[in-house]
Amino acid sequence: MQDTTRILDVAGIGFGPSNLALAIALRERGEEAPSAAFFDRSPSFGWHRGMLIDDATMQISYLKDLVTLRDPTSSFSFLCYLKDRGRLVDFINHQILVPSRTEFHDYLAWAAARFPEVVSYGSEVTAVRPVPGEHAIDCVELVIRDVAEPDRTRTCLARNLVLATGLRMALPDGVELSERVWHSSEFLHRLAELPPAPERSFTVVGAGQSAAEVTNHLLGAFPDARVHAVFSRYGYSVADDSPFANRIFDPAAVDDYYLASPEVRQSLMRYHGNANYSVVDLDLIKEIYRRQYQDKVAGVHRLRIANVSRVRAATPVANGVDVQVEFLPNGEVETVNSDVVIFATGYRPADPMPLLGELGDFIELDDEGMLRVDRNYRAVTSEKLACGIYLQGATEHTHGISSSLLSMTAVRSGEIAESLCAAVRPTS
Ligand SMILES: Cc1cc2nc3c(=O)[nH]c(=O)nc-3n(C[C@H](O)[C@H](O)[C@H](O)COP(=O)(O)OP(=O)(O)OC[C@H]3O[C@@H](n4cnc5c(N)ncnc54)[C@H](O)[C@@H]3O)c2cc1C
């Protein structure tokens, strides 16, 4: 069924924090706001629900919410949320800058709940097709699948697209997920389904924030469990969130990165990757160390760390999973049996090209074969495509390390909103 009644100015694919912030930025433009609709495949608003571990905290200040860096007076700020929930004074007395992830999720859901008229949940966009106009393609058709009834699809037309489809799990080659082999993104859902057993054993693969959170949670939630942490580093390494290094997440850093040559961009990523990738908050590292030390004092060995190691195979067997772990210095392989293996091996941004289908043919590529994107996150296209295709997330190669993070969400969505308004209502 096609909604032929109108052509939207803007269709947003995904309604996580990025497109939620865009919906806010568009609404706050008042009368000049273009018409917009957003589609998300989740049944309701959700932000990394599988990792909403008790006690896990945000990696950013609450001031890096959906709006404050763009407009500190917005009614969608974290402070307005606190006021609305009756916790403003309590939060101030708490004297923290980083809320828990559970609280931030509640904040995001609170903001999303103010957009019932523009967002369709349970709606997966499965394809986007060009609709030729008189001189160029000036409209696209979205094919939207009803997740609850997969045989039902509908379509809608739009003049601009904003893709914010988030991250995809990254797994080592050959690993297949199953009832006993999980990715960290599904951790809490899977854990809730695990049948009770007296003594549990888990293998956690990876040395980043998620791996450390999963390891720490298992040690706390299952006092009798054995946890086998496998990673290729020598030990968990600390996330650099010191003040000067943190400036790599500033709006100004995006300008610098965008202007820089490929060599300078590469070196910036090399210098500052440790602000985000494969690193862990110092407090969490200390907590895991404390637990392991306390266990040693008590004469138990619940946490075993296989460092400088990698998993060569994880094979489901009758009593769990046989995990082959290779110790990299000498190549020796040990087989460890676990009830469950959790791959906390990270994420990669969703590649927009498969979803864009034929539209992708109109987007210019750089020398490395990556999408060319202008400073306002609009893909650079041939003149045959008049529609705007904006990317939220998949622009680390052009806009730097904050592209898939929350730090720049408020400012980025403001820049995209401004560009959309200019495209929809050109002044001359
Ligand atoms: C556990 C975890 C903790 C994190 N903590 C932080 C943090 O503290 N600070 C920080 O800066 N960053 C953090 N991040 C990084 C994270 O990328 C951002 O927090 C944020 O999720 C980016 O928002 P987004 O809207 O771009 O993507 P997402 O939040 O991933 O949202 C994408 C949405 O698109 C929907 N979608 C995907 N494909 C389709 C489709 N075809 N059709 C319809 N809908 C679709 C999905 O259902 C999803 O709702 C964290 C990431 C993880 C995994």
From TrEMBL:
InterPro entries: FAD/NAD-bd_sf, Lys/Orn_oxygenase. Transmembrane segments: none annotated. Pfam families: Lys_Orn_oxgnase. Pathway: Siderophore biosynthesis. Keywords: FAD, Flavoprotein, Monooxygenase, NADP, Oxidoreductase. It catalyses: L-lysine + NADPH + O2 = N(6)-hydroxy-L-lysine + NADP(+) + H2O. Its cofactor is FAD. Its EC number is 1.14.13.59. Belongs to the lysine N(6)-hydroxylase/L-ornithine N(5)-oxygenase family. This is L-lysine N6-monooxygenase MbtG. It comes from Streptomyces macrolidinus.
